[in-house]
């Protein structure tokens, strides 16, 4: 049995759950039994009986769990899937670096989701070079029924919809877009900014509700079930990412899969995915975000061309069957020595 452990209280529609459930679904074809638990719900018997532990996030999951595994289940094989915050933040901040390094050092394999992340890790920690592999994520979600109409949500067919699928937490920085898109609305009176994601930070939620009450063009949709999210991509015109740190954004991948141009913060992870000026734009600050949002608003032909480029790329390079096979091979290689 493969026990996948996600960070404590990870939202069920967040990227970790989406990733783990996608792997659980795809690995069934090889007979793998996959159990998914958040850290606070892991039971002792599951740790004892699992053939392999697959942890998501080195610091938030590996730091509290790896000492237990080392003490009680030293022979247990462990894989850690590294996140953008692991690579870009936890490995650098003085308060988290030592614990993150220790958890990663104890793991048997480390999985990066971009070649650039692997290179950065190999440069910092050359002794881990042989145990680091790259497995890009895939997109595997319902394409949407197309039955949901804008009018049902109170949206106009003439509005340009900027859609930000992101949990309300500091690293996702969802309020960054309010000022530049507010300027664009003041000029055009014809855009809408929609945020969808679990309310993980009470202060951000409170501020967002206050802003939405004052600005009719700003909408918070709450948490949208994964089975329905495709409909919202279909209704949108531009997909946003405002994160301070990213590994590889599932939301951007999904937006590109649905043929939407993307507008994303210029951070590692986003830079690895978005080809600036080809399938979207990368911005460094609010002023650049405003300029690129305005350009996308004014040029429907550019929106269409960028959307098509992104869709072609994601359909060719981020394929579920490839991701599933790579994890099957990784699990098989790691366990064949010990089972």
UniProtKB/TrEMBL annotation:
Q: Which species is listed as the source? A: Bacillus thermozeamaize
- Report the GO molecular function annotations: glycosyltransferase activity
Q: Which domain of life is it from?
A: Bacteria
One matching Pfam family is Glycos_transf_1
For this entry, the protein name equals: Glycosyl transferase family 1 domain-containing protein
Please give the InterPro entries that the UniProt record associates with this protein.
Answer: Glyco_trans_1, Glycosyltransferase_G1
Record-annotated Glycosyl transferase family domain positions: 149-312
Q: Which CDD domains does the record match to this protein?
A: GT4_PimA-like
